[in-house]
Amino acid sequence: MPIQEPATSSHRTAPVHTDPAQVTLESALLALADPVRRTLVRELAGAEDWARSCGSFDVPVTKATLSRHFAVLRESGLLEQRDAGAKRLNRLRRAEFEERFPGLLDLVLRQDG
Amino acid sequence: MPIQEPATSSHRTAPVHTDPAQVTLESALLALADPVRRTLVRELAGAEDWARSCGSFDVPVTKATLSRHFAVLRESGLLEQRDAGAKRLNRLRRAEFEERFPGLLDLVLRQDG
What we know:
The structure is a homodimer.
Chain A: H1 25-33, H2 35-45, E1 52-53, H3 63-75, E2 79-84, E3 87-92, H4 94-100, H5 104-110
Antiparallel strand pairs in A: 1-3, 2-3
């Protein structure tokens, strides 16, 4: 019998997060080296916490690719997500990431491209 | 007829450099995301300019792979090289890279791993 998704969410499983304190430098640098992920991070930096749903980002990638980008951002300690009804909401973990890698996120947010 | 290398150098061609001012954030982050390249950068940061030859680094990679790592470091504005006899000598472009990406190199040098 197929597994039924809960009616309240379009997401199959709850998001798994990595504590920024546990993130390696390599993971952080690779997460931020991708231009689509930098766009997501910059848009989140310009928004209120939890204001942006996953569907609200206008980036030129498929839904599956976007989902993978969100996973990489969670794994690198940059992103917290929570489900609210059918939407998955997002928060940039700016303070925690700053504590782990001082100056790195600000550097990225200041740069073009 | 095979091309003869000059007797004074084991390197086929002169190294090509990228001005740190022209380096993209993506190139800088990807260069520093690799653990072998971070080892090279850290060792250079602890040495005098031009004190280290390419053969002096003890990293667990083949000569061809090491050569590629040096090329990536040149392309990302982190490394300057010059040939001196049979040796290729190295200098970390610390000040120029710092001007282009303030704080990034120091962050990497402060971190473990």
